[in-house]
Amino acid sequence: MKRKASSPTKAPSKSRRSNRVEKDYFDVDPRRADDGAMIWPASTSAIESARDFLRECAKSSQKTLIVPDKDADGLDAGVILLRTLTVLGLAPESVGVHLLDKHSTVHDESERQAMQAKDPKYIIVVDHGSIEAPPIVDSPETKCLLIDHHLSDKFPRDALVVSACHHPPVATSSLLTYEICKALHPDIQSSCGFLCAIGTHGDLGNNLKWKPPFPDMTEVFKMHTKKAINDAVALINAPRRTARYDVISAWDALVKADGPKDVLRYPRLLDARAEINEEVEFRTHAPPKFSKDGKIAVLRIHSGAQVHGVIATRWAGYLNSKTLEIVMVANSGYRPGYVNFSCRIARTARNQNPPVNIIESLKAVAKLDQGDLVQRMGDSFARGHKEASGGIIPSAEFEELMALMQIGEKPDPKPGEATKKVKPSPQKNNLLNYFKR
What we know:
This protein is an alpha/beta fold. The protein has helices at residues 14-18, 44-60, 72-87, 109-117, 173-181, 188-204, 218-223, 226-241, 247-256, 260-264, 267-283, 308-316, 358-366, 373-377, 395-405, 431-436, and strands at 64-68, 95-97, 122-126, 143-148, 159-163, 289-290, 296-301, 326-331, 338-345, 383-384, 388-394. The protein is built from 16 helices and eleven strands. The strands form two sheets. Strands 6-7-8-9-11-10 form a six-stranded mixed sheet, with helices on both faces. Strands 2-1-3-4-5 form a five-stranded parallel sheet. The longest helix has 17 residues, at 44-60.
């Protein structure tokens, strides 16, 4: 089996790409009510409950804590919430932000205590993914709203949940937040449209076509070019990928911005992007190894920066194999004692029917284990989206997972493929005969 494994320093040729029709993100069957009305971006009852929560929060004048994820989607959603609450009348000094420490999740006890110490009466958690867990904080007086789009049917106790994950085409967290908030005040659409665009492009890519049921963003793109939006995505994502992990720099830039061009002038973001570009270029050349069945390619790197997702995306668009489905980049240097990994669907498998589901594929491999590997890997294994998943698991357990995937093992001969026999050489004179004379 031939597999290309040279470094993706160049994009696939246009002639190769021209023969492929990429699946349209909007080529899905949306959920509909009994009367045929589309149910999007989440259930109507959940969206209305979220609006009631925000109205109550603003009216209460009580301390409120916004807890966004660290990427462009989460941070932009958080700033949309901030602007919505303040325009509804909540004093800016009553709204705080809680950004998680490096390697932490919103469910870690240290983070729960840190949020509780700020004594909020309202907490809004956005874009963190969801698992079955205790309440976000222990205080029974604190109300929690959870806004998300990651695939999950399990959520923290006592939280009001608005999830887009079962309402295709799945909205990003920033788009879901924008759809919730823009009905609450007429200024939200004009002040937060560019934030919605940055966050959504951050998750769904620079070439996204804004088709229904996604909102009409014509006015947004008249005011702000797509190039500026896409450049802002890279800058907002840069700090959280650096070893310094100063997510607060990206948050501050968005809070102060009136448009994407303000983000592009933020010095720390420019420095962070240059640092990440250099690290990605240095680490991208790690050679991939393939699973025995050829469906999974794994590249291993050791970096203190969170570049595994970027490299996985790059290689997924480059590797060319008919059997390849998933590209995984595993980073053993980001968190001591653990492996952080990111998975993307290979370009050649994006139109498969049935479609590739990374989460289910990873779980299927883990279930091959006869012991307790699934339990030992914990809740941070195979999280995210069907098309872009990943995890954080202990190093020893990751090696067990690699063994189950049969990474680096030669593929079995194809059925009916005869073993080549070496024909005896017709040459009579050779060195052995010569010295026997």
